[in-house]
Design a protein that fits this description.
It contains two helices and 20 strands. By secondary structure, it is mainly beta.
Length: 247
């Protein structure tokens, strides 16, 4: 497998020259500037920096994407990071991080319309930024829990028109792992993964979850397995990495 090169400016970060991508995403009046790399990790050596699991590594994401049985996945890393689910630059998920948490903010509403989306009224914590590692040789344990009692979001239909207010209700986000997993396709067998399990219910206490959505993350590949998408192959970009398409 050969690495293709892309013309990008370089910047110095900690004395090391690194590639830099500037991506501008405008969603109606909401504008985000994305710069790679993200800030230095706030985590200690005894902790996982969950951003290294949620994102495909920047040295890979400039040249490669994941293919699957449903859709491709392109990663645009940074403090605000994007998962782009199609070669046209949409649909997409918009997430971001700080030193405390990784947050979910927006995802598509109509798969074929980049001017429609769903966005939490306030971005919700998805995972702690730093998660304590288990003891050596311990697998499949619960590493972190986040409980959210209110998760309102807005649906924006075509041309970013606010349509309705909804809510996931009471939400518990859990991080489990690490777990060796064979991801299939050309991906390695017994790759270490962490799993984020999102459980929702109409109201507390969480006796029976109405929805459970697992997402699996690998320390090199990022998001590699979800409720709908099972990524199984690392592919090179056929031409160039698609730009992010919005209204």
């Amino acid at each position: 497998m050969c690495l293709k090169t892309r013309t990008q400016s370089c910047t110095s970060w900690g004395g090391i020259k690194v590639k830099r991508i500037n991506v501008l995403l405008a969603i109606c009046s909401f504008t985000i500037a994305v710069v790679v790399p993200a800030c230095a990790s706030p985590c200690s050596s005894t902790q996982y920096d969950m951003m290294s699991w949620f994102e495909m590594g920047s040295s890979w994401s400039t040249e490669y994407h994941l293919t699957s049985n449903a859709n491709p996945l392109y990663t645009y890393p940074g403090n605000t990071f994007y998962w782009v689910k199609g070669p046209a630059g949409y649909p997409w998920d918009v997430n971001y991080c700080d030193n405390n948490y990784i947050y979910q903010w927006a995802t598509e509403f109509n798969w074929n319309d980049p001017t429609s989306y769903k966005a939490f009224n306030n971005a919700i914590p998805w995972s702690p930024r730093c998660v304590n590692k288990p003891a050596s040789g311990v697998y499949g344990s619960k590493l972190a829990t986040i409980t959210l009692v209110s998760t309102p979001y807005t649906i924006y239909k075509s041309q970013c028109a606010a349509s309705s207010q909804m809510s996931l209700g009471y939400v518990i986000n859990e991080i489990w792992g690490p777990t060796p997993m064979s991801l299939g396709g050309s991906l390695p067998n017994n790759a270490l993964t962490l799993r984020c399990l999102i459980a929702t219910a109409a109201s507390p206490p969480m006796t029976t979850a109405s929805t459970k959505r697992p997402s699996t993350f690998n320390g090199s590949l990022g998001w590699c397995n979800g409720l709908i998408t099972h990524c199984s192959t690392v592919s090179t970009y056929s031409k160039t990495k698609p730009g992010i398409t919005t209204w």
